[in-house]
């Protein structure tokens, strides 16, 4: 009885401690507002008298698009790169964790991450803290909540619009336009693989600054797509042979002038600060850029002349 009693007591203690930890982090995860996961700030767009984009008000450089307006090739490339078992797990990929742990042990370093796509969404959407074991446990519990609150398609849509792609671009639509001068719905296989390869280190593998590194990451994504039978070997070879030739589209600049100050003042009257900061507003004005520029130049030149007078 003594020999088995202390062993049973030890197992009960360990099991109880583990259950207590899970309960604690599960309760902590309940304190986060899941509405924040779907809230993504983007810039407010100001249109001139002709309906053309005049400027954007400061905010996150993001253009939100529905998932059906993203090229299927990018969705496939994203999943094979970041979470091949996305549709099989409930937020935590235990198989992927085990595989990553084995590979890290064999390589002697922590090179392979094990966060599911849902966990990444949780980390990028909510203030979960730093890179610690405690943060990872909380992240896992929050991921379970996200999977309960949103469908898989909704999680994918939120992810592709929230993630950072480097060069100040948030979301696949902004990145596609910034790097290739086209909408995300028109990405070809090679371009889709380039963007998917950017996610883990967007600044290091930027196709604008490091096309060789971007090509290496693209090819790794294509190999993985071929391995999982998402594409054929012929498609992979054709995409690999494509030269990475970015055609960046210049996005409308944020202008700081009298007109935009006036727009901001009017917004402050009719909207709350939270509504303005959240972004996504289309603001139509009667601004005529040519007239506005002429007025600004006239004002500036007159002020300069006055300031240079001897009795100023």
Please characterize this protein's 3D structure.
By secondary structure, the chain is mainly α. Helices cover about 55% and strands about 5% of the residues. It has 14 helices and 3 strands. A 3-stranded mixed beta sheet has the order 2-1-3, with no helix packed on it. A hairpin with a 5-residue loop joins strand 1 (about 45) and strand 2 (about 55). Helix 3 packs across helix 10.
Comma- or semicolon-separated keywords:
mainly alpha; three-stranded mixed beta sheet
Low-confidence stretches: none
Number of strands: 3
Largest sheet data: 3 strands, mixed
The mean pLDDT is: 87
Helix content: 55-70%
Structural class: mainly alpha
| Series of H and E elements | HHEEHHHHHHHHHHHEH
Shape: globular
Instruction: Note the beta-strand portion.
Output: under 5%
Q: Radius of gyration in whole Å, from Cα?
A: 25 Å
Terminal CA distance reads: 101 Å
Write out the strand line-up for the largest beta sheet, numbering strands in chain order.
2-1-3
Number of helices: 14
Please summarize what this structure is:
The protein has 14 helices and 3 strands. With 312 residues, the protein is mainly alpha-helical.
Secondary structure: elements and pairs:
Blueprint: H1 2-29, H2 35-38, E1 44-47, E2 53-57, H3 72-82, H4 94-107, H5 117-125, H6 133-149, H7 152-162, H8 172-180, H9 189-198, H10 211-227, H11 233-241, H12 258-270, H13 273-278, E3 282-284, H14 289-307
Parallel strand pairs: 1-3
Antiparallel strand pairs: 1-2
